[in-house]
Design a protein that fits this description.
Distance between the termini: 57 Å
Strand order of the largest sheet: 2-1-6-5-4-3
Number of helices: 4
Helix content: 25-40%
Largest sheet: 6 strands, mixed
Radius of gyration: 19 Å
Strand content: 35-45%
Structural class: alpha+beta
Amino acid sequence: MIRSILFALVIILVLTGAKAPDDVNAIKAIIADIESGWELGDGTPFKKHFLDFDGARYVESGGQNVGLSDLIQRHVEREKDSLEFLQLDFSNVVVHFEGNFAWAIADTVIKGKIRATGKEFDKKGYETFLFRKVGKAWKVVHTHSSSRDAKTKTQSK
């Protein structure tokens, strides 16, 4: 009887796409590594965790980068030189699975200072990451970020 119940539970987990905590932790670790790469202007975590393929697109607040090299060279690394600082925080990360496909949604807070103008920005919004399992590793296949100016205490909600 216990064997039948365990077998049924395994079948349910497989059919519903439920994943082990190791998969959730792996995806959250990838997101943390990407967060660090953005802040440091370092493309290394992107090369490690993104699946580089023809047609890849990464969308951010109405703009897009086509391909991994475009994202790294024209966005990640370029920001290192144009910003005095960049502080990025991905929080409340929620991960969903469907077989070898996963997506994660995170709250974002983005703060920084533009070197050329001295203008500071403070934005908040959301980031969506799409993942595909390749072999034993989860790889980012797409990201989409949307943010707006964070409201100050004097602004209405």
